[in-house]
Structure formats: structure tokens, C-alpha cells
């Protein structure tokens, strides 16, 4: 067989194979890395950088393992330097992308903030994804969780996902200032993009084993991105604070 055909077949396999788990996955479930001009391993989240790529599952644990086992050099067929904090670097890039997409969704009118507007969006079925601050107070979380489940029951659908990946300050900075404790992402191109990027960050951090769709819109019923605990409540990412000492909804900016 022609060597070039072998190389092409290997490249096609690598495009869909995690170098850590050796399992074939669709591109949206993988992070692409390339060798930079200085030999450093560079994450290519948009999958646009030139050169040979190495793919790792969308998981912080997988990226850390690839660094520990020095798998990037073998996959990229070159001498490379993978920074010890590469996993944290990827987390920062995914977080920046997610926060930026929330801002774009708000500008497009596809994101609402504040407990009242968020609850209305959830109850009327307009919300694709519920976004809550990691330092939110327990009473506000409980009220919206009830609304989320009631809306799902009324439509005989699974409840939409609820993610808690950022603090109120982080959400406020991304969305134009003020405390943002509760927000709902609505349907539309910008809203779907924001939901996908939030889900990707959630999956990377290990909160969810579910798929992140790169083709189909992130719609009602796609709750795989919110891992369920034994009670069926979403296991949201927290900041480590006691929920009872979270931010009061009265302090929240609403838009």
C-alpha cells in the first residue's frame, strides 16, 4: 500500500482519536493541540491553527495525564514542551470563551438576568440553560430549581440543565456590571453558542459526563451536561462556600 495512503489514514484516525484514551470521538468532544513556533504545546480550541494536531478528550484529567505521560511529542512527532499547568491554561481559555459568549448572547437579547426574569423564562419554556452563580444563596437556588422541575413536568420533558461555573462577580463583569446571580440563556444562534460553551467548560471540569453537541442546538431536554446526584438534583459547580451564606437575590442586578 502507498505510504502516503497510510499517512492519510493515520491522520484521519488522529483527527477523531484521543491520545490518552485512544478512543474515537467527534471533534466537539476533543481539544486540539499543536506545536507552537517555540516548541510549546498550544491549545487550539477553534481547530484552526496550521500544522499537525494532537487531540485530547474534553477533560481536565485527560489533559493533565497527557502532560504527565509526555504524549504530545509522540502524537505531534516532534520535540515539544508541554507546560505543567497546561490543563489550567485550557480551563482559563474555555472559561474566557464561555463568559464572552454569555455577553454576546445578552447583546443579542438571548440572555436574561435577575431572579424574576430568569424564573419567567424557565417557567414559560423559553430558557435553554439556567446559569447560576457559584456563590448564590440557597433560597434562590431552591426556588429556581422548583421552577425548573415544574416547567419540565408540565411539558413532560426532562428539566433543563442548571450550571454554576462562575461567581456573581465574574458573571457581572461579563454581563455589564453589577451582581448577576441568576440568568437564563434563551433560544437563538447566540444563545445556543453560549449554552454549548458553558456545557463544554462544565464537561472539561468534570462536572458532567454528557455530550456537548456541536451540530444540534442545545435545547430543552438536553440535561446530560448537568450530572445528577442521588436525589435527582443537578450537581452544580460551587465555589466551596456554604450555600446558606451565599449572595442574597436582593443584591442582584436585573436586565
TrEMBL record:
Positions with biased composition (Basic and acidic residues): 235-246
Region (Disordered): 206-255
Annotated ranges, domain YlxR: 16-81
One Pfam family hit: YlxR
Protein name (Swiss-Prot/TrEMBL): RNA-binding protein
Species of provenance: Aurantimonas aggregata
Amino acid at each position: 500500500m502507498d505510504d502516503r495512503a497510510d499517512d492519510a489514514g493515520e491522520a484521519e484516525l488522529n483527527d477523531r482519536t484521543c491520545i490518552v484514551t485512544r478512543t474515537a470521538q467527534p471533534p466537539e468532544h476533543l481539544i486540539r493541540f499543536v506545536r507552537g513556533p517555540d516548541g510549546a504545546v498550544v491549545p487550539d480550541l477553534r481547530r484552526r491553527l496550521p500544522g499537525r494536531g494532537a487531540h485530547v478528550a474534553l477533560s481536565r484529567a485527560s489533559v493533565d495525564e497527557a502532560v504527565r505521560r509526555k504524549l504530545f511529542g509522540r502524537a505531534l512527532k516532534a520535540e515539544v514542551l508541554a507546560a505543567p499547568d497546561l490543563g489550567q491554561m485550557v480551563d482559563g481559555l474555555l472559561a474566557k470563551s464561555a463568559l464572552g459568549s454569555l455577553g454576546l448572547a445578552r447583546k443579542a437579547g438571548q440572555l436574561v438576568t435577575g431572579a424574576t426574569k430568569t424564573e419567567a423564562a424557565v417557567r414559560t419554556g423559553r430558557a435553554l440553560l439556567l446559569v447560576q452563580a457559584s456563590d448564590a444563596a440557597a433560597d434562590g437556588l431552591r426556588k429556581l430549581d422548583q421552577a425548573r422541575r415544574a416547567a419540565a413536568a408540565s411539558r413532560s420533558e426532562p428539566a433543563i440543565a442548571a450550571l454554576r461555573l462562575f461567581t456573581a462577580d465574574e458573571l457581572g463583569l461579563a454581563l455589564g456590571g453589577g451582581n448577576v446571580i441568576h440568568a437564563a440563556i434563551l433560544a437563538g444562534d447566540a444563545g445556543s453558542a453560549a449554552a454549548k460553551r458553558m456545557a463544554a467548560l462544565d464537561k472539561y471540569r468534570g462536572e458532567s459526563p454528557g455530550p456537548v453537541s456541536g451540530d444540534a442546538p442545545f435545547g430543552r431536554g438536553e440535561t446530560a451536561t448537568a450530572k445528577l446526584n442521588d436525589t435527582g438534583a443537578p450537581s452544580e459547580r460551587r465555589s466551596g462556600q456554604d450555600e446558606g451564606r451565599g449572595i442574597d437575590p436582593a443584591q442582584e442586578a436585573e436586565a
